[in-house]
Amino acid sequence: MNTISTAELRVHGLAHAFARDEVLSGIHFRVRAGEVVALVGPSGCGKTTLLHLAAGLLTVQEGKVDNGFASTAFMFQQPRLLPWKTALDNVALGLKAAGIQRAERHFRARALALRLGLAHRDLDKFPHQLSGGMQSRVALARALVLAPELLLLDEPFSALDVGLKEELYRLLLDHQAERGMGVLMITHDLMEAVRLSDAILVMAPEPGRIVCRFELDRPASRRDDAWVYRHTAELLQTPDVRTSFGLPPVVEPERATRAQGQEAVRQQGVRQEGAAQDGAGQEGAAGAGRAQPLSGLRLVSPATGLIAVQGGKRCGA
Ligand SMILES: Nc1ncnc2c1ncn2[C@@H]1O[C@H](COP(=O)(O)OP(=O)(O)OP(=O)(O)O)[C@@H](O)[C@H]1O
Ligand SMILES: [Mg+2]
Low complexity bias located where (predicted)? Predict the structure, then answer.
């Protein structure tokens, strides 16, 4: 029977610079046991640096990282497999370091690698003989096989095709539910964040900082595609997310319609002018003011299942 753990990872007032480049500033958050937290933000905003600090792979310069979990496993953004070891031995690496006997570690590593969609024949291959997606599954297996209390993942699914992603999402959620792991996961994919996480931290760049936290109130196991699409769309509409990713503000449909109408009238005028010069003015009046619906993003109703909190206040709604 699972006992409920009260362990948590607490990050407080974290700041970091590489030489004179301030990369992170004023980072506060926590990850509790049994919780999946996604970290999203534009490329170069400091997500990997933050994860490395959380994992103790970089020395903390300012602020505090308090990891109360008994064991932590890390999956790097690049698979970082040992080139002289087979896929199976790469998966089993941490088990070897933990002193587990060869037969037992191979048994566990093989079972997990097969669950992650690798074939028996792949397990005897060396990293250079594996595709990018296979390498990232080996790297994920290497972290999961340790059954850690805290799992830190840096874009674990980015090299995988859509079918495999779905399968691995389920597997990660099963592992997480079975063991009550805490998971902190970087992703570029907002839909992935909405599908998997209990909370989403949105980072903005220069310096990297958390501008918004979203909490998703429906358990991941009960989210269907429609729920995920709707809430991803909501997330994409929020001003903080758009600003962070350098997207232009959402244009409200009525305003867009009016603007399009005005543009249509303006173009009409130009066409009519041209037509008058050509001596043929039939084309034109029919299109004036008849705006087409905007293509691309659609404005959806304010968040309901999605609760946004910023410094204790709602944001992004
Ligand atoms: N070891 C390092 N030395 C100097 N600068 C670094 C180092 N590691 C990262 N940086 C810089 O810190 C900034 C943040 O890098 P980081 O890898 O954390 O970004 P990221 O958000 O993970 O980006 P991506 O989404 O592209 O992976 C970048 O400007 C990067 O050049
Ligand atoms: Mg990164």
Answer: 271-280
